[in-house]
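Running this now, will post back.
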Amino acid sequence: MKKIIAFQLALLLFTFSTAQVKILFDATKAESAGNADWVIDADLNNIGYFISNNGVPTTGGTESNAQAIPTPAVTLGNTYAETYWDGGLSYWGLDCIKKGYSVESLPIGKAITYGNIANTQDLSKYDVFIVCEPNILFTATEKTAILAFVNNGGGLFMIADHDISDRNNDGDDAPIVWNDLMQNNSTGNSNPFGFLFNNPGNTAIDNISETSTNLNQSLAGNDSILHGPWGNVTRVKWSGGTTMTLTPSANPTIKPVIYANAISSPPSGNNEVMVAYGRYGKGKFVAFGDSSPFDDGTGDPLDALFTGYMGDVTPNHRNIIMNSTIWLVENNTTLPVSINKFLASVNHYQVVLTWEADNEINIEGYQVQRSLDGNQFENRGSLMSANNKGITQTYEYSDAIPANNTNDLFYRLQIIDKNGGNKFSEIRNIHTNSLLSEYTLNLNPVRNNLLISSKNKKARTIQYCIYGASGQKLKQNNITIAQGEQNISIDVKNLLSGLYIINIYDSNESNTFKFNKID
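Update: finished.
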C-alpha cells in the first residue's frame, strides 16, 4: 500500500536501491605486474611495467589490462564456472555474483576519487573497494578519497604481500604502499586503522611461507570472519607473505584473526598477525598479509599462477575471503531502505527534492546535502524517517536558491540508519543559471480557471501537465508565453472536485503547484 502518492514529473528521475551491493576491484596500481594477475577479468593483455618508465603502466606489454565491466555478462545471483572470466581473481568475483553482488574493475588510467561527480566510477557509488597487492603509491588525493570512503561507511579490503615484492620495479611494494596510505595522509592520523604491515623497517616477521592454525581464541564461535555465512575457517596458508603489528590504542576496534606460527599457543597479542579487521568511522576494513590465498590459478597465461583460492587448505581460503567480503557489506552500508524515485525540480526559485522510500527498517533519517561544484557538499537540512515497513513513504524538502546564484546546484541524500551506517544517493544537478521564469499560483481553491502569474526573461513555448490524486495524467497542453510579466489562465471546469497537481516545465526548468478544485 501507499501512504502518500508521489508524482513522476519526468525530470531528473533515477532509481537507487541500497539492496544492490556494488563492489569495485582496483586495477590502477600495477596489480597485474610481474607474475601477479590480481584482476577479475581482462579481455586484453597489452600492458607493460617497464623500468624505463619507472614501473608506470603503459601499452606495449603482455600483462592483463582489466576493463571496467567484466565480460561475458552475468546474471546476478547465478553460479558460473571459474573460467567464465579471465583473471587471477575471477573465482572471487564470480562468488560475489553468486552472492548477489555486482562487481566492476577500476581500469588503468582511471583515478580513485570520492564525491567527484565527473567520475562514473567514484567510490561513493560502491559499497566495497578491493585493492589486491598494490605496487604503486596512492597519490595524496587518492589517500584522502579512500579514507573518506571508509570513514563515511564504505568497506575496504586491504591485501599486501611479503617485503621486497616490488613487481613493477618502482621501489615500492605492497606493504610500503599500504603503510604510506596510513602514515602519510591528510587526516592528521598516522595510524587510522590501528595496524601496519611489517616490512624491512620492522623487526617482526615480514616474509613467511607456512600453514597456520593459530586462530585468535578470544573470538567467539559466531565471529563474522572465522565462522561467517560462507563457512568456517580452521587454517590459512601463506606462500611468501607478511604479517602485521597491531596498535589497539590507535584504533580500539582492530581485531587479530590469525597469527603466524611464531606466536606460541594459545595465540594472543598484537604482533605477527596474518589477518585482521576493524572499523574506521562508519566504515570497515579487512587486512590480509599475503595475496597468495586470493590466486585462483587462472588468468594471464604468461604468469606463474597458483590455486590458492580453492587449491590450498581447501575450502578455508575461499571461506575466509568471502566471509570477509560479506562482513564488509553487511550491517554497515547496506541499508534495507530502497529509494525508488528521487526528483529535483525548481519551484518559485526554490529547489524542491522529493523521493519515495520503501522498506524503511531501522532508518534514522535523511540528510539533504548541497554543493556548488559537485564535490564539496554541505548539510542543508534533515528529515526523520517514518520507518514504515511495507509502506511506500514520500518525502519532500525545499531549499532556497542562493541570492544572485550563477552556478549550477548539486544535491544528494545521505541515508542514515540507527546504528550509524549510511549511504549516499546519486548526485542530481539543477541548472539554476538558466532559469527563465518565475511563477506564482493565484486563487486557490479553483472553480473554473486556474490563474498563474509569470515573470519571463524571454518569450518561448512551455508545457503544462495536470495530475490527479492517484498520479494519472489528466490534461496536457502547450502555452506560448511573452517576455515580461504575464497571467496564464488554464480551464479546469471539467475536473471533478479534489486535489490536483500542475507541473509547468520546459527543457530548462520545472515548477510544480498543488491546487484544490471545487464546484
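The longest strand covers residues 338-347. More later if anyone needs it.
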